[in-house]
Each structure stands twice: as structure tokens, then as C-alpha cells.
Amino acid sequence: MTRPYVLLSVAVSLDGYIDDAGPDRLRLSDSADFDRVDRVRAESDAILVGAETLRRDNPRLLVNNAERRAARVAAGKPEYPLKVTVTARGDLDRELNFWHHGGAKVVYTTDSGAARLADRLVGIADVVTLGAEIEFGALLDDLGRRGVGRLMVEGGTGMHTAFLAADLADELHLAVAPIVVGDSAAPRFLADARFAGGSTRRRTLADVERVGDMAVLRYLLRPDDPDHRFLRRAIELARQCPPSDTAFSVGAVIVADGVEIATGYSRETDEKVHAEESALNKLPADDPRLAAATLYSTLEPCSQRATATRLPCTDRILRAGIPRVVIAWREPTTFVVNCVGVENLRQHGIEVIELPELADEAMSMNRHLDLA
Ligand SMILES: [Zn+2]
To answer: What DSSP designation does 164 have?
Structure first.
């Protein structure tokens, strides 16, 4: 059972509030940041908000950009991500916008909540009970069974607190607005809770980006997770590459069911072979494990090759039927004008995860090259 990758997304004021105490919703994001959130939604398989947020803000939770919706359809996905909400009591009105826009909806609730909701939401949402109380691990298991690989949690306080306290969140996008709220009656990003690791646990700052007048901070909440472990293994393999002044040194690992099934590195078996190619060459083309495998590569898989007779790694990954790729850095323009490996893979429905916090380490054996 694969649980989805869980991304918490929130906009906060400088003093850590997600709204003011007034009846109308405080707009913390500017238009550029709303567009960023729209893009992250489009990249997600499901979007979750808590019942309190539905009652308070009555959001529609759509992907607003038509091109992004078209790209989803072209990739064989539903036009809109699955919309998910959570309510223990089942206190949700049928008139809320949430039910009447976008694609499929599912509501997770308790046995008693389900008794209240089943009739009210008949025909407009799937009502799923998690038993006597809400258990977020079971919720993620169910989403995994529904094919959700990437879940975006947009709040509110109760949802973000629950996922973080249960150590079920993989990533946090914290967008800081240049606004001061200054009212302790306003809702905050997180409520008091016993968070895993306590107040001394340092999370990993992966990225800082300026979007409009906002600062968007991206944190990895569980950097000891398997993706980091296997990508570090690929970095170790990259150190074994025979040196070259005309090509990158790259390492690759193919993992199925949490176990390494093949490895490769640049120039491992001949002077032209790529890391991903070398790893794939070690497996039969019809290896059934490939259909659920993840390929880890220190560098973005190539979309074109200097040796025209050899297939680009992007095509090899697609042919192998590998559904998921994790990389540390995008190919710079040192040897090719524009590598579109990540774009090609995503267009074909492959999930591509980038872990830029490992990029420095992954590039360390390539410093003699011009990393333009
Ligand atoms: Zn390649």
C-alpha cells in the first residue's frame, strides 16, 4: 500500500496568522502567489481542506488556469484533482461551493458523521467512514487505494496540525505575506500539539522563492525518508564514474517495494553509457517490478543524446514503464541547449520529484565542468 506524498500549503502573515478575526476572509496571497498555488494544485492528484475551512471560507478549490487543466487531461488525468474534506461530526451543508464545482469529491468522516451525511450528499460526494474517530493514516491509505500519489493539504489549522503532529506530512510550502494581523483571536497556521520530534527537531529548508510580494519557503519535513536515502545512494554511485571532461558524472538506482533492484553510473560499462541506461540494462525489459518502481538519478534524465544511435534516457524510462522518477538537479546547459527530460516525463504521466536540497552534493563530482 502506497500512501500519497503529503504537501502542506499555507499562506501566513508576518505574525503567523492565516486570517484575521473578521467575518470576511483576509487575502494574504497576491495574484502571483494565487497563480503559484493554482500550479501546485494542478500538479496534485487530490486537494484536501478541513470542514472548518469549508464553513468559514466556502472555497471552490479549482484549478483555475485552463491550460493547466488541459495539460492534466492530456496526461490522462481527470481535469480537476480529487477534492477531499474531513469532518468528524458530519456538519457540512449541501449548499457549500465545494460540492458544486470541479471534479470528484470524497468526504472522510466517522460512523456518526456518515449517518448524518450519507443522505445529504447522495449523488455529489463519496462518504467514507474511518470508524469511531478520524484516523489520518487510514485516510491516506484510502487515498492511496484511489490512486492518489500526491495530496495537497490547504488547511485549515486543524488539518495542518493533525498531519504534522502525526508526522504524515512530507513537505511544507509556507508563503509569508507582508501583512501584520496583530489579533490573537485570529486563526494561526498551527494549533498547540505534540509534534513528532518536539521543538528541537530541525526540518530541512529546501528552497526559498520570491513570488510577487510573498516569500515562499519550501521545507522537507521528513528528510530521513526513503527518497533521500536512495538519492544519496545514487550520489555515492556517481562518485564511481570514470572521470570525463565531456560528460557529467551521474548515479542512478532503481527501487521497487523499498528494495534496490538495479544501479548504474555514467561510463560504467562503456564510455558512452548513461547512469539510468546502465541500471535499466541490468534488468529484463519485461521485469514486472518496473511497473511500480522508482528511478533515482542524481541528474535530470536526458531528452536528447550526442550519440544519435542511442535512445535518450527519458524514452528508456517511458519504455520500461517506470511510473516515478526522483532527481536532485536539472541538467544545466553545459552540453545541451535545453534538456526537457522532466517535462517529457511529466507529460507522459510520470511523477517526477525534485530534491534540490541534495543538488550541491549531487553536483560535487562535476565541479570541473562548466555548470552554466
Ligand atoms: Zn541519459
So the answer is: H
Q: How far away, in angstroms, is 266 Cα from ligand 1 center?
A: 9
Kindly give the distance from the C-alpha atom of residue 113 to the centroid of ligand 1, in angstroms, as a whole number: 52
What is the tally of structural domains in the chain? 2
Same domain, 234 and 289: yes
Helix, strand or coil, per DSSP, at residue 100: helix
CA distances from 51 to 87, 105, 157 (A): 5, 13, 11
Do 267 and 216 fall within a single domain? no
Q: Is the predicted pLDDT of residue 41 greater than 50, yes or no?
A: yes
Domain end marker among 220, 240, 262? 220
The string of DSSP letters for 299-360 reads EPPPSS-SSTTS--HHHHHHHHT--EEEEEE---TTTSS---HHHHHHHTT-EEEE-GGGHH
What does the DSSP 8-state code read for residue 4?
Answer: P
- Mean local confidence (pLDDT), 302-321: 92
* Residues, CB within 5 angstroms of ligand 1 (ion): 274, 302, 313
- How far apart (Å, rounded) are the C-alpha atoms in residues 166 and 177? 27
Same domain as 255, residue 215? no
Beta strands 171-176 and 214-220 are antiparallel
Please give the pLDDT value at position 1: 45
215 DSSP β-pair partners: 176, 210
Structural domain containing residue 9 = 5-220
Query: Residue 372's pLDDT band (boundaries 50, 70, 90)?
Result: low
Looking at the structure, do residues 310 and 258 belong to the same domain, yes or no? yes
pLDDT at site 137: 92
Rg of the chain over all Cα atoms, to the nearest angstrom? 22
